Give the backbone structure.
Amino acid sequence: MGKYSNSYLEFLKYWLPVLLWASLIFYLSSIPGLSSGLPVYYDVFLRKLAHAGIFGVLNLLIFRALKFGHNYNFKKALIWSLILAVLYAFSDEAHQYFVPEREATLFDVGVDSLGAIFSGLLLIFFRKK
């Protein structure tokens, strides 16, 4: 394989999971009136927990792509992964604004961001171990 084939495979290895996960987020955000069917309290709690978890995973995938796919140092990869995950959270809420029976809230951006930050803290914690 030539030089370009190798770099293409490396790109796919690190960025394809990011793109697939971001596509899953986009798909889920496209579903009108997404609800679990549980009582309102549990439904809201579980959805917020899912928001945080989904964006936590997105942050980890972006971190992996930057750290290992582009050889960013730990700090630079972590900062950029957090920035990109939070920007995607904003774009996700903007997308939901146009989906029937869905709403766009800054609160959800905050929940998504907390999920990304929590996963970043996990990276820091396990790096020191």
Summary: Residues 40-69 form the longest helix (30 residues). Helices lie at 3-29, 40-69, 74-97, 106-128. DSSP finds four helices and no strands in the chain. The radius of gyration is 16 Å.
